[in-house]
Amino acid sequence: MKKKILIVDDEPNIVVPLEFLMTRNNYDVQTADTGEKALGLILSWKPDLILLDIMLPGMDGYEVCQKIRQEKQFSNTRIIFLSAMARSIDIAKGMGLSADDYITKPFANDYVVSKIKNLLADKD
Predict the structure, then answer these.
(1) How, if at all, do strands 49-52 and 4-8 pair?
(2) Above 80 in pLDDT, residue 66?
């Protein structure tokens, strides 16, 4: 069965290439452009991994991560922050919310794919 990845970002120039890349690497992909939509998809679709931007309209990525981590049923869901917020304090805050990784924008596609493969391999 294909692993499921949810891409949460409000920038089409990030979402479209990532969606293509994940599909090309044989993942089942859904996208959300707000934190609220992401939480709805997480509950109904139960992704294996979430690529999560921080700067989202409404509920930010930190809050989405916090809500996911409060739910026991999603304790094994992998979360990678993808953010332009590259200060060490931003990264520390994300990792402090029990994210599995934090990748700053701009990023290399191969790097993101390798991180995803490693995290999902650990989940098996």
Answers:
(1) parallel
(2) yes
Local structure of 119: helix, strand or coil: helix
* Tokens coding 59: 């509920």
The pLDDT of residue 39 is above 80: yes
Q: 4 near 27, Cβ under 8 Å?
A: yes
Q: Is 3.40.50.2300 the CATH classification of the domain at 4-123? A: yes
Report yes or no: 102 and 67 within 8 Å, Cβ to Cβ: no
Distances (CA, A) of 98 to 2, 18, 70, 108, 109: 25, 23, 10, 23, 23
Domain layout of the chain by residue ranges: 4-123
Mean pLDDT of 50-75: 96
Sign of CA dihedral 63, 67, 68, 69: positive
pLDDT beyond 70 at 49: yes
Is the whole model's pTM more than 0.90, yes or no? Answer: yes
